[in-house]
Structure formats: C-alpha cells, structure tokens
Design goal:
two-stranded antiparallel sheet, 109 residues, alpha+beta, 4 helices
Length: 109
C-alpha cells in the first residue's frame, strides 16, 4: 500500500542519511523494497508541455487494482458491515494479493 511504501522510503532515507548503508537494518529495508517491486511492470503515457507533465494513460497487467472489487455498482465479496472489523478490511487486500499470486503462477506454467 501507499502507506507502507512511504514508511519504507522514510526508513531507507533516514538510514542512508545517517550513514547506515551497510547496516542489517538498511539491508532489510532494501530487500523489502526489492520484493515489493518484483511484479511491478507496465506503461505510462506522458505529455510534457511548458514545464508541466500530464499523465495521458497508464497500463499495468499485474496491477492489484480490481474494478469489480472497488465498484459501488457491483457487489463483490465486500459487505458494508465488514467496515466495522479491521481484520475483514485487511482480508480484502490479502485476498486480492492471493488472487494475483495465482495469476502469476498460472502465467509461469
């Protein structure tokens, strides 16, 4: 998630700034960042005009984003009453990650 990404980025920058590049902690953060980027791929179309950058489109075949999951029109596995439970909310993210892992395994075969 974006929150975890920001946390890793902050920890990494603090460790580098403090001279801990070769420390076990910094090695761990680097390995977490590398792991988080394993399935990152895609294309972004940009327009650059007069010092401004505009995103025209983006495409990521291994994206965790699932339109049916976030749609208010399609009732997926998410029930509004789940909002009362932290574990159920996190389960949505983890189930989607597991779905993507299955997709990757199928493509690898």
């Amino acid at each position: 998630t974006l929150f975890r990404s920001k946390q890793l980025s902050l920890r990494f920058s603090e460790q580098v700034y403090n001279g801990f590049w070769y420390s076990p902690e910094c090695e761990y953060v680097r390995s977490c960042i590398a792991k988080s980027q394993e399935l990152v791929e895609g294309k972004v179309q940009l327009s650059v005009l007069k010092g401004q950058v505009y995103v025209l489109g983006r495409e990521a075949p291994m994206s965790l984003y699932n339109e049916e999951l976030v749609s208010m029109d399609v009732q997926g596995n998410y029930e509004p009453c789940d909002a009362t439970g932290f574990i159920n909310i996190n389960a949505v993210r983890l189930k989607e990650f597991h779905r993507l892992q299955k997709k990757v395994a199928t493509l690898a075969e």
